[in-house]
Hints:
The complex is a heterotrimer. Chain A is mostly helical. Chain A is built from 14 helices and no strands. Chain A folds into 2 domains: 19-50; 55-290, MetI-like fold (Orthogonal Bundle). Chain A has helices at residues 21-50, 55-62, 65-98, 104-116, 119-130, 135-142, 151-161, 164-177, 180-187, 192-221, 224-230, 240-249, 253-280, 282-290. By secondary structure, chain C is α/β, with parallel strands linked by helices. Chain C has 3 domains: 2-69, no CATH class; 79-169 and 293-346, Periplasmic binding protein-like II (D-Maltodextrin-Binding Protein, domain 2), CATH 3.40.190.10; 172-290 and 351-379, 3-Layer(aba) Sandwich (D-Maltodextrin-Binding Protein, domain 2). Chain C is built from 18 helices and 12 strands. The chains are: A mainly alpha, B mainly alpha, C alpha/beta.
Amino acid sequence: MTETLTLPKPRAFRPATTEPVLVKWALIALVLAILTVLLFAPLIAVFEEALRRGAAFALASLSEPDAQSAIRLTLLVAAMTVPLNAAFGIAAAWAVTKFDWRGKAWVITLIDLPFSVSPVVAGLLFVLMFGSNSALGVWLVANGYPIVFAVPGIVLATLFITFPFVARELIPIMLEQGRSEEEAALTLGASGWRTFLTVTLPNIRWALLYGVLLCNARAMGEFGAVAVVSGKIRGQTTTMPLMIEMFYNEYLSVAAFTMAAVLALLAFVTLALKSALEWRYADQLAATHRH
Amino acid sequence: MHLRSFAIKSPTPMPGWGLSFGIMLTMLSVVVLIPITVLLWRGFVGFGATGMWEVINRPRVWNALELSFRAALVASLFNLVFGVLLAWVLVRYRFPGKRLIDAAVDLPFALPTAVAGIALTAIYAPNGVLGSVIMETFGMRVAYTELGIWIALIFVGLPFVVRTVQPVIEEIDRETEEASATLGASRLRTLTHVVLPMLTPAALTGFALALARSVGEYGSVIFIAGNLPNVTEIAPLLIVIRLEEFDYDGGVAIAIAMLAISFTLLLAINLIQIWSRRRMGAV
Amino acid sequence: MRLLNTLRNKIDKALIPTEAREPRQPESARTINNDTDLNDMLTTQSTYRASFAWPHLVAVAAVGLGAVSFLAPAVSAQTLLNVSYDPTRELYREYNEWFADWWVEQGNPRPHIQTSHGGSGAQARAVIDGLGAHVVTLALAGDISAVATNTGKIPADWQSRLPNNSSPYTSTIVFLVREGNPKNLQDWDDLIAEGVQVITPNPKTSGGARWNYLAAWGYAQENGLDPADFVGALYRNVPVLDTAARGSTTTFAQRGLGDVLLAWENEAYLALAELGEDQFDIVVPSVSVLAEPPVAVVEGNIPDDATHALATAYLEQLYSPEAQAIALKNFYRAWDTSAADPADVARFPDVNRLSIDYFGGWEQAQPEHFGDGGIFDQIYTVQ
């Protein structure tokens, strides 16, 4: 314990690009208050329900084979949908922002469309396409490739639900950045891929990361659409959100909320990864700010 | 396929048109266009426009559609303002717990909507932590009223605006702000005249996405809404009711009505955005 | 199919270097070994390289299809899929274990029994849309009939194939009231009094709620009241229409809303166990319903005789004294009490239970009361 001499602080110098301190703290307080009421309160409620009978009881509910297979399936579905949507997002953002063409607004709107489709209807779409009422569905089942009520249907529905995330994350930022940097690189003789990898990608990687994280979170948490196409076979086509519903309906609320808490924690883990990346590449991140 | 002549307006040295447009079109077709076409086919050809109109043109359905779109608009407008604010606070300010909050913003996506609905209802029910306080102070019920629907929709749409605006703020050149300040603009003026216009495309995108998402939301709303016909019954619930009766045609009809309205709304927002972009680009 | 397999192998090759592909054998072997000729052919092929736009596209588009197809579940002969409704998990978990042992005792290999649980109507819809259920054990005969009429996979006379309308266990609708019954709610007519709040789910989305509604209707009819007015008055006392039974239980028990919850008897007992026996009482009204959750073999989904024998035995054994004891233990009213714990039997008081035939059978009751524009909808029609 060492005594430190406290000097009277010099009057803080405020650069022209920040707000007054009072305003800053008022804004922070406002944001925190709203988040507490709308976001943290329900989150705490989930954890409280999960731990109602103690941590051991909660953890025991996760060791059930059904629960474990639900966790595995959810991770698998996320691992399949996220890269596909990332590839789509990058391609779509490139086509939309680097070229001028007619019908852009229509295409962007089509990309947004899956969000406005109620999840229940999203599931129904694939049932209509691949269910036993459609010739295609019957043919696929007869040849040993069931789509709905099997894993492929779950992947398709999740793909649909999370479709706009990466694209819509990238489009505004690529619009903001314009094309001049890529054009410069091309003029200097860089190939297309090289321009993308060394000029565009570094500029968009944070937006890409946000998009991927959102996509991932939503892919793991989707319930409505998946419920329609899954068939809910225990240990086989039951994802974590479906398992939560089953537990809840079976009056096993501790098990249900524990699994919900696990989903929340999984999201936290991916976000912790993001934070770690940000910290690791802080210099580069700062550099892109200054250009 | 001569993609380059497909729609492109002006020649550009930019490479990758065929590849990027091709991937976009392929996936857009497989995941969105074909399934939506199947839905429309089923509605218009399988069921018929008159039949669909009969299903939709009833007071109860109109009430539900109106409620769904009104609540989604209110929630998304709130998220538009709050999302920009939150993104700004997260990028520009340093304060304890910032990382935690940044991490928590995405949770509404990760939490299955039903869980969110149950948790929100627990808090805002008349005997809940916040519900009882609001009841005593304002004499207002939150859960099982339209207010409850707003709260659920604000929750599910929260990450959209934040996460679209955040990267843009991170990329903003401080020099622009400095220049504005040097030229004598007050901080407020710099923010409203320099920073906000830069955020507008992203914020509008986030708003559109939040709106689209909230219109169709089902899982979280049904727990907090009360679901009384004509009062707190949302349109997606009507679709589910139709499906429960094994009435696919009726469900498809309401789904197409919702789809048409949201598509128009989204298209309008995207047109405004592209139009304003062009105007700004010309400056 | 050949095309698909070729594509899949191509993608496998494109995405994974040969040495990395080996350890994946256990998973991919299932589908790839089927066509060894193709495999041999492909090993001589040059490595796929993504250098041009369109092949690349095809790859991206097909990765999903290809990658997921080898994950499709394998179907073995002794697998049985039981598609059931929501809170039957404990019942069928216990019964599946007992049945598997019994089946082995009969000299058969151990079967692999899978279960699926969800809302009864949604489960029926899934079977109609192609979920490969071998047996269905749903909440309402109407839901099984819907499968029968929409798919033809279940014979029309299914309900006469097993005893007691193909219902191995039954239940009824009871009142769950707050501890000590502060509003002294004893029977249905107490529920329409001013100031009483009744919690029940929406009969349009919840099978159980249809029984709630019909029980009230039956009471009015038995007591010479106008049943339409009576249920109208009842639903005007309902402040929240949850979409499923479980949601209503939560609204009543945890949100503190309402004076009485209308619930399945078996779920009322489950709720007591989960949410606290000291907080609620069960009241059995003078008139209630004979809710018969029926069972049926989905003949159209049975691939072979062995599975047929298994599925038939699975349902028939539900009527054995041991299985009936399991049902009683899980708060269902079963028929055969010979092997049951007397405490499980004594739990259920006598009640005048009206069967669905009293309401003209589901074929009549469903459209008349719960169909689009039916009597229930009229309660909520804007004047």
